Amino acid sequence: MDSDKIQILGLFCPLCGGDTELIWKDNLIARRCKKCGVIFCPSSKETTSIYDESYFERWYIKSRFKRKRYIRKLIEKIGKAWPLQPGNLLDIGCGVGIFLEIMKENGWKISGTEVSPYACRYCEKKEFDVVCCQLEEAGFLSSYFDLITAFDVIAHLYKPQNYLREIYRILKKDGLLIIKTPHHPAFLFRFANIFRFTRKSKSLLHIPAQIFHFAPCSIKKFLSMNGFDILSTIRVNDIPAFFISFSLKSMFIFLEQLFLRIISGSDSLIVIARKKFPIKEEIKV
Ligand SMILES: [Zn+2]
């Protein structure tokens, strides 16, 4: 059976091959790997069509100054956990380039990948070096980047392991990878099960947009299985949704954020990892 069919059935973990158990059920399901702990939604598919002009206008462009302030604080937190020296940076899923802009001001040589044609055109106007495609299609040079970042990307990918393989290839020896992803531990799903009659548990769990759900332990395992040493894990909270766009929807998202903070301790995780060198299978690259 090919790996796509195995992932859709969800009987085995798409990341490590371990046995899985049903952990949450609505009209969709989520399964948890008994070996690495990752939680995934077997029938969810990667979607890029929502990332259009109105999405970026509403959630990023109108609030770019607030976003910049928030990202500067994140960079400060990361710098305290692991000092960063400017070099070649790639931001995967760079959106309209707010993070890239700050890192350029900080002396980094910036590049980005982005699947939204609208966001790519926006970055082009700023003369940022952004490629409009999936990471594997960008064809970057091997061992080129000092730092690769992926903020709120990895959980939305159908095959995040393919991304990690490519990240490993294009990072320099001792290069750093910084991933930010929602913090969704197993007990959040068990809790959501109790409230599924409200029909709101899906949106609390970001399903179906989010395919993979990580907690500190599972994200660390996933990175170390793919050739990375974990340097630091930081728990952070996202910028409050109503602070970005004031509407009923954003108030509802904010309540979800608050709930997640109470249940999980923080709504997001940042992991700083370093490329292990060498690992056998990568010597041929
Ligand atoms: Zn697993």
Question: Describe it for me?
Answer:
- With 285 residues, the chain is of the alpha/beta class.
- It has one domain (3-282): Rossmann fold, CATH 3.40.50.150.
- It has helices spanning 3-9, 53-61, 64-81, 98-105, 117-125, 160-170, 186-194, 201-204, 216-225, 241-244, 248-264, and strands spanning 20-25, 29-33, 39-40, 88-92, 109-113, 130-131, 145-151, 171-182, 212-213, 228-236, 268-275.
- The strands form 2 sheets. It has a 7-stranded mixed beta sheet with strand order 6-5-4-7-8-11-10, sandwiched between helices. A 4-stranded antiparallel beta sheet has the order 1-2-3-9, with helices on one face.
- Strand 1 (20-25) and strand 2 form a beta hairpin.
- The two termini are 27 Å apart.
- The relative contact order is 0.15.
- The site of zinc ion has 8 residues, from loops.
Q: What is the overall silhouette?
A: globular
Q: Could you give me the name of the CATH homologous superfamily?
A: Vaccinia Virus protein VP39
Associated small molecules = zinc ion
What is the number of independent domains? 1
The residue ranges in which pLDDT falls below 50 over 5 or more consecutive positions are: none
The chain-level mean pLDDT equals 88
How far apart lie the N and C ends?
Answer: 27 Å
Strand content: 15-25%
